[in-house]
Design the sequence.
């Protein structure tokens, strides 16, 4: 098999598995930049995945056809944002330990969605499969370009482009707009931000809601592009992988994009590796654990030091220094 | 003095209120979805306390939960958050099973303690790494322990597939010489899987209490948990204590894994995902306000709820409701600020703050 042939298998598949990670990691960046640790990304993805499956099926019944999965993504954004407000309420207003609250979010999301699936589908543990998934396509014209055409414009879902565009948008918002400056200041030094008249509590609520929106979108994208139904095992670890991507990307949207693509690459290697000559001999487990090992190394400073925002995880209490 | 005693009282009250709130909200969800909460909670109570078999199974569930809770609580006392119980537990589980299978012909009285020791060492080693990274490189332990969980999950699965594979996606059975099971315990509980591990778990609780409150090490660990800077100023070696604390916490988690291997299942399965025992341990530790007796009580409650899933299912109520209730309890315990705030409002004429 030629090198080009191998790349034509690996790259599109890597982009496909990276897409939900990119979106969810962006949510993590937004929340943590404002100073709220979000271990609940996994739970937010679960909510998004559930909504993605249930609403796609419902819209299909209404006869909306191929538009169904896209509309379900919108619902997932709203549902994710709404659900994440629970995390906001606990960790911002009630000053709960943010890690514990995140753990609770993950539990609650799984319990609630599986409970609802059983209620909605007569005791079945998972939803039926959706008919209209967002499928891989070839982008007109562009996919004829030699070399980059087959790699980046063939066998690709439009959601992947959406994820990349959103990564750039989030980067622009965080680093180039007044809103982004406020967001970062609230996460680095909330007392100083408060002194300058920035409403710390409100900024953090907005950031957490945005992280829910992105997490929900990520989970729904996973369901409508890859899984095509939802059950208790559909989202198992992708949220934590997105968390790792956020850290490996040093709390920077573009860094998170790069890290998520890299993790997607490792994931797709562990899936498609068997059909590629020299990768056959590497035990699967090394590809599976690679993202996590790399994240630890990155944190320890071996792969460029990753520093969290200064006030990450610290509740803001007015008047206390 | 007066306020101090009142504070202590509130400290103990917060988890109780959290449990009540969790059960209440759970009841509301049941009413909304058309189930009878009295029937549901009643059936759990009846099952766990009045049916010998399920009473036994509740204790079986409780055993690893106690050790998992002790692990989290122990680390909490040093100001460390051990989300890594899942990984440490898997490593300890595999280590104990592998050791038992390899040295099958050793006498029981030697083999079981050694299996437990090996599990504790394996879990401790897995906990040592985040401790080391925290102490040496100031890496936050929450992230590293989560990453270590996944590394443990995939690695243990790969090792079982490669070296210890038996039909049914699991390892071979451990020899009788390493089993904690007991015909006596099983017979008095209507044939449940109840095993001597309960003694190990309770001993673990005593060890945690002793280490923390009766040794110099424990004093230093608690001091660092209160204020690392002051402890450093007083001449304590903070870095070394962080590493020690994480290793001991990992040891507890490793033994929790051994309980599954030597007691509950007699083998280790290839796990598609985590056992959940480690995450429940966080809730158990929080409920038990990081004390040894509290952890035992918290573990009993969670074990009863989880065993009660079966009785809820027999009433046609999806068992996931129990997971929802557990999540709610975690939420309410975590939001203790809200509960304290409310309690303060209720204390009319209490000392102004």
Sequence:
């Amino acid at each position: 098999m030629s090198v080009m042939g191998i790349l034509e298998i690996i790259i599109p598949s890597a982009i496909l598995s990276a897409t939900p990670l990119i979106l969810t990691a962006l949510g993590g960046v937004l929340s943590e930049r404002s100073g709220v640790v979000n271990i609940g990304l996994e739970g937010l993805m679960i909510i998004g995945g559930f909504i993605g499956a249930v609403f796609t099926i419902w819209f299909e019944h209404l006869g909306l056809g191929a538009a169904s999965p896209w509309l379900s993504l919108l619902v997932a954004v709203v549902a994710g944002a709404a659900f994440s407000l629970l995390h906001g309420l606990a960790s911002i207003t009630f000053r709960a330990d943010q890690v514990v609250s995140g753990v609770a979010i993950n539990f609650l999301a799984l319990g609630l969605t599986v409970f609802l699936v059983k209620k909605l589908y007569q005791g079945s543990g998972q939803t039926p499969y959706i008919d209209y998934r967002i499928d891989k396509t070839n982008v007109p014209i562009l996919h004829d370009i030699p070399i980059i055409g087959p790699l980046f414009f063939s066998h690709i879902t439009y959601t992947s482009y959406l994820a990349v565009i959103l990564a750039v948008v989030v980067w622009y918002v965080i680093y180039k707009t007044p809103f982004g400056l406020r967001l970062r200041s609230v996460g680095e030094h909330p007392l100083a931000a408060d002194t300058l008249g920035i409403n710390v509590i409100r900024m953090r609520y907005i950031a957490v809601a945005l992280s829910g929106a992105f997490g929900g979108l990520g989970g729904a994208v996973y369901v409508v592009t890859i899984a095509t139904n939802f059950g208790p095992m559909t989202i198992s670890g992708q949220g934590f992988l997105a968390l790792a991507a956020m850290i490996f990307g040093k709390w920077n949207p573009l860094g998170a994009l790069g890290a998520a693509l890299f993790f997607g690459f490792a994931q797709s290697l562990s899936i498609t590796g068997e059909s590629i000559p020299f990768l056959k001999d590497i035990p699967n487990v090394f590809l599976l654990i690679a993202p996590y090992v790399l994240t630890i190394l990155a944190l320890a400073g071996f792969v460029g030091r990753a520093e969290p925002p200064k006030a990450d995880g610290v509740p803001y209490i007015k008047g206390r220094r | 003095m007066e306020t101090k005693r009142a504070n202590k009282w509130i400290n103990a009250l917060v988890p109780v209120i959290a449990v009540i709130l969790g059960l209440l909200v759970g009841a509301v969800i049941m009413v909304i979805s058309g189930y009878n909460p009295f029937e549901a909670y009643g059936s759990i109570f009846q099952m766990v306390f009045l049916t010998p078999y399920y009473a036994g199974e509740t204790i079986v569930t409780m055993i690893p939960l106690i050790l998992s809770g002790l692990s989290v609580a122990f680390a909490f006392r040093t100001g460390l958050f051990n989300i890594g119980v899942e990984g440490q537990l898997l490593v300890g589980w595999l280590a104990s099973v592998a050791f038992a299978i390899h040295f099958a012909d050793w006498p029981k009285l030697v083999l079981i303690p050694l299996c437990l020791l090996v599990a504790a060492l394996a879990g401790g080693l897995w906990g040592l790494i985040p401790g080391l990274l925290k102490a040496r490189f100031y890496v936050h332990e929450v992230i590293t322990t989560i990453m270590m969980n996944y590394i443990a999950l995939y690695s243990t699965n790969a090792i079982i597939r490669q070296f210890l594979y038996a039909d049914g996606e699991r390892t071979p059975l451990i020899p009788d010489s390493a089993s904690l099971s007991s015909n006596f315990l099983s017979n008095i509980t209507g044939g449940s899987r109840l095993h001597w591990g309960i003694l190990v778990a309770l001993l673990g609780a005593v060890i945690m209490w002793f280490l923390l409150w009766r040794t110099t090490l424990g004093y230093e660990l608690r001091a660092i948990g209160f204020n690392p800077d002051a402890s450093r100023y007083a001449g304590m070696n903070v870095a070394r204590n962080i590493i020690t604390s994480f290793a001991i916490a990992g040891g507890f988690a490793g033994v929790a894994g051994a309980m599954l291997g030597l007691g509950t299942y007699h083998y280790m399965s290839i796990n598609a995902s985590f056992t959940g025992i480690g995450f429940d341990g966080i809730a158990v530790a929080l409920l038990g306000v990081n004390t040894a007796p509290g952890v035992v009580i918290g573990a009993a409650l969670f074990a009863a709820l989880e065993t009660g899933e079966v009785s809820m299912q027999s009433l046609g109520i999806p068992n996931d409701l129990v997971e929802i209730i557990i999540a709610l309890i975690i939420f309410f315990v975590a939001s203790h600020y809200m509960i304290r705030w409310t309690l303060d409002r209720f204390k009319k004429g209490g000392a102004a703050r």
